[in-house]
Specification:
By secondary structure, the chain is mainly α. The chain is 65% helix and 0% strand. It has one domain. α1 crosses α3 and α2 packs across α3. The N and C termini lie far apart (34 Å).
Length: 89
């Protein structure tokens, strides 16, 4: 679990640089939290399809892809005004 958090932290930072568009979500903490969520998402999906064992977590590349997916969903929810844009107060 700690491994997934650390990899998710790094993947969130990388995903922020790879993600096009405005800097939403802004802020270091929110970006890394979304990266950690992406790593957990990648781990969950990987374990569900049998790619990872019960004690394995997502690797760096898969966690980065998961972070990009979570970041994309976040940006779509902000664009649709389902959730408020925390960066523009």
């Amino acid at each position: 679990m700690i491994r997934v958090i650390i990899i998710g932290f790094i993947a969130g930072i990388v995903a922020r640089f790879l993600s096009p568009g405005p800097n939403n979500p802004s802020g270091f903490i929110l970006t890394t939290v979304l990266g950690i969520a992406g790593a957990f998402l990648a781990t969950f999906i990987g374990q569900a399809i049998g790619h990872y064992g019960p004690e394995q977590g997502a690797g760096f590349i898969t966690a980065t892809i998961g972070a990009l997916v979570v970041l994309f969903i976040w940006n779509r929810l902000v664009a649709a005004r389902v959730i408020p844009d925390i960066g523009n107060k």
